[in-house]
Amino acid sequence: MGILEVKNVSKNFGGLKALNNVTLDVRENTVHAIIGPNGAGKSTLLNCLVGKLIPDTGSVMFDGQSVLGRKPFEINQMGISRVFQTPEIFGDLTVMENMLIPIFARRDGAFRMHAIESVAHESAVLEQAEKMLIDMKMIDKRHMHAASMSRGDKRRLEIGMCLSQEPRLLLLDEPTAGMARADTNNTIDLLKQIKAERDITIAIIEHDMHVVFSLADRITVLAQGTPLVEDEPQNIRGNPKVREAYLGETA
Amino acid sequence: MLGLGKKDTTLLIVVAVLTLCAPFILNPFPAGSAMAQFNAGYPDLMQRFVIFGIFAVGFNILFGLTGYLSFGHAAFLGVGSYSAVWIFKLFTYNVLPAIALSVVVAGLFSLLIGFVSLRRSGIYFSILTLAFAQMSFALAYSVLSNPKFNLTNGETGLQVYTDDPQWFHSDRLPDLPHLFGLSMRATHTMHMGDWSFSFNTGYYLCAVVMLLVFYLAIRIFRSPFGMMLRAVKSNQQRMNYTGLNTRPYTLAAFVISGMYAGLAGGLMAAMDPLAGAERMQWTASGEVVLMTILGGTGTLIGPVLGAGFIKYFENIFSKINDTVLHGWFGFLPDGLEDVMVFIVHPFIGKGWHLTLGLLFMLVVIFLPGGLVEGGQRLARWIRGRRAEDSRRKTEPAE
Questions:
Q1: What is residue A229's predicted lDDT score, i.e. its pLDDT?
Q2: CATH 3.40.50.300 residue ranges for chain A
């Protein structure tokens, strides 16, 4: 039984069938990659998982509970964290503050009005944030404005922010899009390290086959809104159906 | 000190000293001199400085931290004034209950308006708040002042009449707003040589209240709540996907800043016990936006500076007339004198808006961070020069 179970999910935009009867099982403590050509419905599927879109039919269960109809912040509170294609961080805030916010959110829930006590006095939260910044190798950048960092650093910060909430499921939307090879390899190493050190399930949407085949335990191939195959990487590589729909097309 | 960091403590102390010594600082020119018209140390204007300072500090909690630009904050100020005057009419001239009620009523009113307006963001939010404020203005100006139900007294403005009940009023107490018998208008004038300084009870009440709420604003800015508000401004999307519900955060900020506006309105009524609908008009809402931007959005002291700046211009520049100008340019030959007066004329008296507009444009273009940025640049420049000087001194002549 998977931690995330997607059953018969369909989503139409006007006449376009973005998702057609998608069924998907993400098993606990695995890295599950979702690949497919452009327009296959990968992003639509992801948006259905995090509450940005509501599917027309079907169900999405996380850890035995339905996520449908819940708002993004509620789904995050359930234990799903999302990393965006372009890093979404708090650009006007410092790196340290960026790290503090998810930790406060984890501790206090969706809203708490502590408007009097200074942030500087929250030693437990500060410590936790510092630890995570050390883990992400960006403690020396803690006073920098987040917006002024490089793309790779922003990505690392965003992943760190998600991890600081100790999510059970981490969703990554093309985490290496627009990155140089060196940054891509760093990101792969970071994700491998995260997987090795934590009890965490990772679902990753990716274009880059190099990333997919170095990380994934299981791969689902989407094409035209329908899952084509779901299997282990070595079987995907040789699958003629996949070659035709995806690899063949791009080659 | 007081749970603040070192920098904030210094800021608070500086502000405290400046406000408490304002009667001296704002009256630098001898009473009889030609420059005396630039003195701002008279009670009426000093009260306005701090009251609008409170208004702008509160507005900045919403606009500076969350980035939601409300164009209807004057409505809360007006509601605060009306509530205070009703306390004067019905119960007592003591200002404390009046101010308390004005804060509470403005808080409730902003909860209602905020709840509806905050469903939208950006320009739609601004337009919604503007619409609500103009609605409130129309209600106060005409709808709620019919003979059967006269809440606002329409055009005339709400004021205290001799046949009002004033249940807790007694003959021993002054017939004006007071604090346990101490009249708000009581002014002690101190003469030192040619100089004269006025110490007004009302001003000091306002000053103490401003220091309290300024302190509160610093605490809010430095708290986790304040950090969340800045995060809302920076990236709402990330907020939502971090498990935070942005709506209650923005609503809380909206209500807090509405209460600040109500407090300002209550104090205004406490200084002068009447309330008119024009206080709620959109120009009044726009003025607080100008104050905040001019002073420095999102900074602690900026709004106070902006409020002081605008109120100074409004009251001092508008009083300069052609006679005064002729006095200034009297040393010039006759023809030239008239030319100079002709050139300067549009910028003074009723034309003070023009001067303010030009200054506002200059600040926005060259100092996007407002007067605070100007101050910072100046400080950096001085520090840079000093560093250069000391470097020059330490380097021996070769």
A1: 86
A2: 4-79+167-250
Asked if residue B373 is part of any domain, the answer here is no
Instruction: Tell if the CB–CB gap between A110 and B219 is shorter than 8 Å.
Output: no
Number of domains observed in the structure of chain B: 1
What's the domain range around B203?
Answer: 6-29+41-301
CA distances in angstroms from A3 to A21, A214, B151, B371, listed in the order given: 19, 22, 61, 55
Contact (CB<8Å) B243/A121? no
Q: With bands split at pLDDT 50, 70 and 90, how would you rate the model's confidence at B396?
A: low
With 80 as the cut, is the pLDDT of residue B391 above it?
Answer: no
Report which secondary-structure segment, H or E, holds B144.
none
CB neighbour burial string for B116-151, b if at least 16 within 10 angstroms, e if fewer: ebbeebeeebbebbbbbbbebbebbbeebbeeeeee
Q: Which residues pair with A59 in a beta bridge?
A: A7
pLDDT at A248: 54
Which CATH number is B225's domain given?
1.10.3470
Q: How far is B209 from chain A (nearest CA, A)?
A: 18
Amino acid occupying residue A184: T
Which of chain A's residues have a Cβ under 8 Å away from the Cβ of B224?
A: 100, 104, 108, 112, 114, 117, 119, 122
Contact yes or no for B248 and A111 at CB 8 A: yes
- Count other C-beta atoms under 10 Å from residue A249's C-beta: 11
Instruction: Write the residue in A89, A106, A116 that is nearest to B223 by C-beta.
Output: A116
What are B170-224's pLDDT values in tens digits?
Answer: 888 888 999 998 999 999 998 888 888 999 999 999 999 999 999 999 999 999 9
Q: Which chain A residue is nearest to residue B243, measuring alpha carbons?
A: A73
The CB-based long-range contact list for B169-172 (8 Å cut-off, 24+ gap) reads: B169/B91, B169/B92, B169/B93
pLDDT band at A140 (very low <50, low <70, confident <90, very high): very high
Confidence (pLDDT) at A251: 42
- Between the alpha carbon of residue A34 and those of residues A2, A192, B223, the distances in Å are 15, 17, 41
> Quick one: fold of A4-79+167-250?
Rossmann fold (3.40.50)
**Torsion region of B67: left, alpha or beta (phi above 0 gives left; psi -120 to 50 gives alpha):** left
**Interface mutation vs chain B, best among A90, A100, A132, A170, most B CBs within 10 Å:** A90
B231/A101 CB distance under 8 A: yes
Report yes or no on B339 lying in a domain.
no
Averaged confidence pLDDT in chain B: 92
CB pairs under 8 A between A and B: 113
